[in-house]
Structure prediction request, 156 residues.
Amino acid sequence: MTVCLKKAMLLGLFFGGALGIAQASEFEHRVNLIASYKQECSACHTAYLPSMLPAGSWRRIMSGLDRHFGVDASLDPKTVTELTQWLSTHAGTSSRVVQPPAEDRITRSAWFERKHREVSSAVWQRASVRSRAQCAACHLRADQGDYDEDHVRIPR
Ligand code: HEC
Ligand code: HEC
Prediction:
């Protein structure tokens, strides 16, 4: 019931706008992730959707891969250029995403905190989850860029 209401409200908000489906337009749930991105950026965590960070955040992340959140995730310059270009082109531009979040972390975005308000700190710390950055622990289709609430399951 709450879910239906929420969707109805979002659709209502956007009804008069140019964009039809609010959530799809916000995060492009089903964007095609290019092969090199999936290969190079999904070894340690989910391959995030480019639309979840603004272009400036992606550029900073891609120019500092040798000291990437405490690990060395360096790539050859050609791949860095290719991925930086692709991420910037598909970066988020909506009002919720355009402001770079703290540490350029998706998980520090206001929208992320709002959407996960009901997830308790005990759940984030479960061995089966480990970190907010491990989207695929709960979003069963995250590897396909699909974060729809219909495919969320919190592991034990
Ligand atoms: C060698 C492992 C490794 C590789 C490869 C890697 N990362 Fe990461 N990345 C990490 C770690 C560790 C974190 C911090 C995770 C945490 O806080 O739990 C992280 C965090 C991130 C975050 C922030 C997540 C958040 O909290 O919102 C982004 C964005 C990110 N990585 C993008 C990338 C991109 C783009 C690539 C490919 C160019 C990449 N990563 C490749 C290890 C890696
Ligand atoms: C501990 C499990 C868990 C992890 C890890 C997690 N989420 Fe979620 N996520 C949820 C839950 C629960 C909801 C709320 C679903 C609902 O409203 O029914 C949610 C909602 C969302 C939504 C809104 C979906 C919608 O249809 O409204 C998005 C987008 C999202 N998460 C993205 C992410 C991203 C990106 C990551 C990783 C950086 C992530 N989540 C990590 C559990 C998780």
Notes: Helices lie at 2-14, 22-27, 35-41, 55-62, 77-89, 110-115, 121-124. The chain has seven helices and no strands. Confidence is low (pLDDT under 50) at residues 8-24. The pocket of heme C (ligand 1) is lined by residues 40-41, 43-45, 48, 61, 65, 68-71, 73, 83, 105-107, 131-133 (CB under 6 Å).
